[in-house]
Structure prediction request, 625 residues.
Amino acid sequence: MNKLSKIVILTLLWSTACTKSAPQAQESHKLKVGLVLDKGGKDDKSFNSGAFRGATKAADELGIELKMVESPDDAAFEPALRSFAERGYPLVLAIGFAQVDAVKKVAPQFPATHFAIVDGVVESPNVSTLMFAEHEGSYLVGYLAGLMSKSAKVGFIGGMDIALIRRFEMGFGAGVKAANPKAEVDVNYVGVNSTAWVNPGRGKELALSQYSRGVDIIFHAAGASGLGVFDAAAERQAYAIGVDSNQNGLKPGRVATSMLKRVDIAVYDVIKEQAAGKFTPGTRSFGLKDNGIDYAVDENNEKLIAPYKVKLDEIRKKIIAGEIKVPDFYTLKKMN
Amino acid sequence: MIVDLLMSTLRLSVPLLFAAYGGLLSERSGVANIALEANLLFSAFTAAAVVALSGQLVLGVAAGVVASALVSLIFALICIWGHGDQIVVGTAFNLLAAGLIPVLNKALFNVMGSTPALANTFHQTWPFFALALCVLWALHFLFTSTRHGLRLSAAGENPAALVNQGVDYQRVRLRAVVEGGVLAGVGGVYLSLCQGSGYVRDMAAGRGFIALAAVIFGAWKPIPTFFACLFFAFTDAVQIQMQGRSMGGVELPNQFVQILPYVVTLLVLIIFARQITAPAAINDSSRRR
Prediction:
């Protein structure tokens, strides 16, 4: 072993030793919350930004001490979670489906620490699972697409063909058919590996080919590849529907609405419960009823969807009341 | 349907073509170049960032191409004068692109993932495709009838012969790699300013490697490489059209349709592997000559 590698190893050892010992020095009476974000990081303008927004709001309003970590890759989740738990953080939040395995492993080792995970189920007495009823929101925007489509052809473009995205697709398709039983739904997926979420070029080609086949409105659930769908919509003067965060402003006038997934609300709620000493383990689902799932209306699409708004709110009420049963890919495939 | 397929093929082929031209120049001169992905990403990012900040499309194009040329220059210096193993250095550059661009993006726009969405972009593919045809002709001319082209080939086949002629083969290689960087840069610019509207993290999505496969499939010759790129773009276009269709009453699973371009790439390379020979002195980083 040469000198350089010895120095590198020593530095690494020293730095890990430091990270473990340092926080014990600063004692604080504030509630400490650790937040481990998914790969997109706190500025992804979507999922992770939502989680960060919710946690910061809680920090401001409830006077908690928030510490956030962005993970560069999947291997970094477990050490990040463990490090928070070891430092005595009473509540550790794991954002994203990719952290399920890490939480499954770490949570039983720290029974006194509370964990919360978004988008994936972990059954453990100290873990709270926060799920979203994506199918409900997809049904609602699908209903809008069904009403808006003049050609009775609508499109769906997913990122990777995984169960979570199938859940969007199934709910969306059901909504379209409910609004217009004769409508057809054209379904495409961007890719088979993780580049499927970052390939706007392919997303645009898929959208263009759907528009060429007569589709006039497309709902995407394809991460950053969806930006290509908006480009295609602008090019063909057709419509698109955004996902997760409010994407109406990306191509004003061409984005009919965005299906919102309010991760911020879920994260805020969990922190608030912990602060009040009422942390509850187990799975809970956020949906239309608690505004955890919603659709975006702002100055960019107000006029465009005004004719459909009354009908949409009626459908929303019916879903909340249970009068409309939205098919859920998870329960239908017994995935959950 | 047929027209859609052809248009789609043309649109998808542009980034592959320019990246492949870049790879071709570099490889023919004896520098194995797996860093095309880095060229695409750096130029796509720089072009989008400059347009976002200045609002000038032309400025963005220039900046993207210059960024890619710079990347190639540094790559060439390390490979040629640093005698680094070309594959290892190329890998390092791809990793550098994955790591450095988010940092720069964060510094400029306070966001890790992507640049702001751009309002003004190129709306037409054909200028890019026309340029690709011109470059094809230029490359063909370069290799068949110019002194630089012959020296370039010699640097890749038998550098010792150039040394005997009193020609500095390392300079020939340097020039070829940087020229290749300029060409690959156009592909990156197309990604963020024409096909897309803004930079998205890792948006090259493996196109640099597909382009490299096209160079090999094209036996390191301009015209066959051109058709290899069109062929790969065509399989991708077919994949896009076939998804969700049923074949003889059976709906093909998406995953199966989506792997077709890659399966075709593998098959083609296996079938033609015997007839294809690489430049003899490729990835030859030895110090003595």
